[in-house]
Specification:
With 389 residues, the protein is α+β, with helices and mostly antiparallel strands. The protein is built from 6 helices and 17 strands.
């Protein structure tokens, strides 16, 4: 029993110690030896050597290369299916040059319909103007007939007066044997016939005057003196309305073609032929244009570094992945409003709980190999805290 206890007491620790020593030796012998690896790219550092200053004298920030005065997202004026894209990526376009054409079939049909309506309105106006000479002739003819009828009335009244006078003469003779009764009756009947002729002539004058009034009324609808009458004014207004409707339809047709607002370069295409273009204000532009000019770099300076920022301070940028390239930056402008910081993608829906001052620099040279949207490490020579500007 005691012999067995000695084995358990001394044997097991010896076995464990032996195993530990052998395992340590195996680990030391089999340990891999790895050579030091260089990083794929050297980290960007402040340009202390270039400016002979301490790295603490710089404001470090991240910038994004962008077109001068920001990119232009060209939107559609009217919604519809894209019928043609008339430019390609990298093309240089001029102001007013067609870029994209939306389906124009409906707008073209509306233009044709409005053009036909204008032609009809003009034809109606010309027809009314053509009625003026006949209407004037009818008025002149009626006036001439009135003068003739009035002359006829005068003749009839003179004849009636003559016959009345003759009748009075025979009626004034006291001796009934001096003139026959048949003669008196004949002259009386002649007076009655003359009265009928006068009445008929006067009725004719009234009828001709009525015709004259009607002719003048018809002419007054077309012409009042030297001015147009109400019918012509209404027809002229219909022509003007048809011209305005045609102009509106032609504008709608013109709006189906998206044109460049300025001289620029096409840097992005966000739609293809056959896709639906939305004209809403929140939609992405059909094409992205870069105005001509030196490239800009938009830098976000953290609010804690704003007191150290000086607009006329020297600034140097290095593209990500090429820290040895030092690009001198020239101040373009400073946006004086500090805003909530956004992520580098520029989506304003993702805000960070800090504020930044946005400063835009221009790149002096176009041959530095930068592309729009590229991130750039920017170092701005800072003003020491407490030093006045």
């Amino acid at each position: 029993m005691s012999k067995r206890s000695k084995i358990l007491t001394w044997g097991l620790p010896i076995v464990g110690l032996t195993t530990l020593v052998l395992g340590s030796i195996a680990v030391i012998v089999d340990r891999p030896v790895r050579a030091a690896e260089q990083p794929p790219r050297q980290p960007t550092t402040a340009p202390t050597e270039d400016l002979n200053t301490d790295s603490r004298a710089f404001i470090g920030a991240i910038g994004v290369a962008e077109p001068p005065n920001e990119a232009i997202e060209v939107a559609a004026h009217v919604p519809g299916v894209v019928e043609a894209i008339m430019v390609g990526l990298g093309d240089r376009v001029q102001a007013g040059q067609p870029l994209v054409r939306i389906d124009t079939r409906r707008a073209a049909r509306e233009v044709d319909r409005r053009r036909a309506a204008l032609q009809l309105a003009r034809a109606e106006l010309d027809a009314l103007r053509a009625q003026i000479p006949p209407a004037e002739a009818r008025v002149e003819s009626a006036e001439s007939n009135v003068r003739t009828a009035e002359a006829t009335v005068l003749v009839a009244r003179a004849d009636l007066a003559d016959r009345l006078n003759r009748l009075r003469i025979v009626q004034s003779i006291d001796d009934p044997r001096a003139i026959a009764a048949e003669e008196i009756d004949t002259r009386r009947f002649a007076v009655q016939r003359a009265e009928g002729v006068v009445a008929e002539a006067e009725a004719g004058v009234a009828q001709i005057l009525s015709n004259l009034s009607e002719a003048k009324a018809q002419l007054s609808l077309l012409k009042i003196g030297e001015d147009d009458g109400p019918d012509l004014r209404a027809a002229t207004a219909r022509v003007a309305q048809a011209e305005a409707d045609l102009a509106a339809a032609e504008t709608e047709l013109e709006l189906a073609t998206v044109r460049s607002p300025t001289d620029a370069i096409v840097i992005q295409r966000n739609i293809r032929v056959g896709e639906y273009a939305d004209a809403g204000g929140h939609s992405r532009g059909l094409l992205t244009l870069s105005p001509l000019g030196p490239m800009h770099v938009r830098v976000q300076i953290d609010e804690v570094d704003i007191p150290r920022f000086t607009p006329n301070a020297r600034a140097i940028g290095s593209p990500r992945g090429n820290p040895n390239l030092r690009i001198p930056l020239t101040l373009a402008y400073v946006e004086p409003l500090a805003v909530a910081k956004t992520n580098l993608a520029g989506r304003t829906s993702e805000l960070i709980d800090t504020r930044v001052l946005r400063v835009v620099y221009s790149v002096d040279s176009e041959a530095v190999g930068l592309v729009f949207g590229q991130q750039i490490d920017v170092y701005i020579e800072a003003r020491p805290i407490g030093e006045s500007s």
